[in-house]
């Protein structure tokens, strides 16, 4: 675990411990070059980072509008997750958010578990990589620091196709076999579009405000990376963008959500409202049906090039090479930021009123030239 230090990014100490190695800000790969390397199979996406920049003033105005419109719903869903997790019998919990979309959710849920339910909660943020699995060194660290296997709860922001939920399940199973542990690999999310999570507050494709920013809402931490010099006991790495401090919203965003969730926590009768179960089977069927239709309609051979839902569509525009954005309603407030990004990056936009989500993005195939 060389190169690691107990750091909380731009969050207050105690809000989160990023179990990540801080790497130097060098060796960045241009987005177009990165896409070509990924799709050719010459390098895995986890081995490369493209540089980030601070959002434009125009884009930040859209983020502020998204917060005004959707923070109450996100706070409610964080509260629902906290209620569901609080039903577990363990008093001491280890929340493990998946860096980095899960980090803001973990910060809020951990605070709610402490302040509403009186739980002893530690919050860690760790890396998981498609086709590579969860950071096993980070899990070993958590267990070595006094946490029982059955106290670990995994959190993320949302699911698009369920890829990360399945990656988590398979890699934790391998970890359990190798280490003789019984960690529950169930993933807890705000919005489960794929019906793949163990626990979700919603199956709706709504605008989660933190989904439309990168480092500046996630503790100034980059997407995680598996550097080529990693040893067996090293954590996955990240870049810490401390130069973005003036544009950072990470702590203030989480604080606002906590305040909103606390105000929602008690009904007039003084009891917490009941959490209703979601229809995961319906979400799963909707996801599988649409993905198949989209691949046929747009001539896509690789399912990894189809990204459904607002969160995934936004990620494509922020850090991949997009081929197309499809919107259900171009006038909807939920997709205003996507329209801006598409305009800035000169990405074509198609309208499909029958789309089962607010938006999808297609990644450009390397074979398209």
- The count of helical stretches stands at 9
Please give the alpha-carbon distance between the first and last residues.
41 Å
Radius of gyration from CA coordinates: 20 Å
Low-confidence stretches: none
Shape: globular
In round numbers, the mean pLDDT is 91
Approximate strand percentage: 15-25%
Helical fraction: 25-40%
**Would you tell me the structural class of the helices and strands?**
alpha/beta
Number of strands: 15
Q: Describe the sheet with the most strands.
A: 7 strands, parallel
**What is the string of helix and strand elements?**
EEHHEHEEEHEEHEEEHHEHEHEE
What characteristics describe this protein?
seven-stranded parallel sheet; globular; four-stranded mixed sheet; single chain; 37% helix; 9 helices; alpha/beta; 369 residues
């Amino acid at each position: 675990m060389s190169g690691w230090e107990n750091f909380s990014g731009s969050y207050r100490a105690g809000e989160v411990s990023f179990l990540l190695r801080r790497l130097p800000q060098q060796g960045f790969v241009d987005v177009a070059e990165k896409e070509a390397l990924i799709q050719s199979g010459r390098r895995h996406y986890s081995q490369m980072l493209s540089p980030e920049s601070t959002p434009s003033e125009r884009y930040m105005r859209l983020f502020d509008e998204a917060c005004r419109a959707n923070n109450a719903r996100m706070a409610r869903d964080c509260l629902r997750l906290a209620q569901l997790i609080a039903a577990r019998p363990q008093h001491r919990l280890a929340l493990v958010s998946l860096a980095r979309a899960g980090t803001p959710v973990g910060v809020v849920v951990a605070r709610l578990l402490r302040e509403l339910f009186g739980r002893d909660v530690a919050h860690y943020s760790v890396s998981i990589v498609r086709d590579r699995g969860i950071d096993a060194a980070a899990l070993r660290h958590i267990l070595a620091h006094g946490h029982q296997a059955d106290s670990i709860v995994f959190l993320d922001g949302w699911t698009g196709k369920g890829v990360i939920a399945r990656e988590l399940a398979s890699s934790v199973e391998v970890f359990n076999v190798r280490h003789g542990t019984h960690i529950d690999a169930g993933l807890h999310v705000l919005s489960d579009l794929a019906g793949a999570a163990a626990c979700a507050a919603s199956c709706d494709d709504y605008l989660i405000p933190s989904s439309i920013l990168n480092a500046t809402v996630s503790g100034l931490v980059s997407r995680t990376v598996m550097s080529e010099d990693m040893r067996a006991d090293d954590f996955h790495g990240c870049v810490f963008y401390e130069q973005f401090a003036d544009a950072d919203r990470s702590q203030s965003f989480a604080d606002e959500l906590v305040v909103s969730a606390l105000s929602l926590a008690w009904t007039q009768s003084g009891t917490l409202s009941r959490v209703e179960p979601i229809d995961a089977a319906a979400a799963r069927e909707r996801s599988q049906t649409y993905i198949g239709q989209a691949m046929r309609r747009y001539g896509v051979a690789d399912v990894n090039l189809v990204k459904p839902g607002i969160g995934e569509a936004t990620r494509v525009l922020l850090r991949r090479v997009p081929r197309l954005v499809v919107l259900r309603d171009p006038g909807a407030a939920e997709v205003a930021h996507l329209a801006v990004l598409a305009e800035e990056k000169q990405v074509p936009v198609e309208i499909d009123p029958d789309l089962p989500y607010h938006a999808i993005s297609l990644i450009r195939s390397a074979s398209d030239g």
